[in-house]
Amino acid sequence: AARSSMAAADDAGCGCGSHSTSYVHDPNCASCPPAQLGFNTFPMGKLMLDRDFQAEQDFFRGKHLRHNRYQHGSGIGCGLEVGPHPTVGCRDTYVVVEPGQAVDCCGQEIVLLRPEVVPLADLVKQAWAAEHGEDPMTGTHTIQLCLQYAECATENVPVIYADCSCDDACRPNRIVESY
Rounded to an integer, what distance in angstroms lies between the CA atom of residue 68 and that of residue 45? Predict the structure, then answer.
């Protein structure tokens, strides 16, 4: 039987939620947000810039992540049971991860809303080849199946003014949390 566990990740690429391409945080969480946070003040007449709105998001998001990380720790909150594929002929190749919730070491919540079919045999073969090359896989091995947090940029919208671009730029309007 496979064991379920988790790690951490981050960024865009959509197709997210199911074997997506996304940036992955350092597994040791060296890239976790800092625990010390600052918040905006709003004096009358203050010119609000994009960095002010981002700082507001960062403050409340940072508090949430810090709370999860220090008060609850990482691990599976509920669900995420790993089981055999329902089709007998597929059980040598795939497992199914049931819906559930977990928190990674940075405090990011990872939520699976529907069962996820995972090509475990291929993942094991790839991991073995990366570490052992052409050596044959023999004997009994423990397999750890991990989830990684990912952020998927979506809803590209035109940006009237872009700091780093001279062309008509499009930027994501939303970030969807995924895995």
Answer: 36
Kindly give, in sequence order, each residue whose CB lies less than 8 Å from that of residue 143, ignoring residues fewer than 6 positions away.
2, 3, 120, 124
With 0-12 / 13-18 / 19 or more C-beta atoms within 10 angstroms meaning exposed / middle / buried, residue 50 is: exposed
The first and second tokens of residue 147, run together, are 């989830």
Q: Per residue in 17-65, pLDDT tens?
A: 443 333 334 445 556 766 678 888 889 999 998 889 988 998 999 899 9
Rounded Cα–Cα distance for residues 45 and 50 (Å): 16
pLDDT in tens, 145-159: 999 999 999 999 888
Query: Using H for helix, E for strand and C for coil, what is the string for the chain?
Result: CCEEEECCCCCCCCCCCCCCCCCCCCCCCCCCCCCCCCCCCCCCCCCCCHHHHHHHHHHHHHHHHHHHHHHHCCEEEEECCEEECCCHHHCCCCEEECCEEEECCCCCEEEECCCEEECHHHHHHHHHHHHHCCCCCCCCCCCEEEECCEEEEEEEEEECCCCCCCCCEEEEEEEEEEC
Q: How many whole angstroms separate alpha carbon 23 and alpha carbon 152?
A: 10
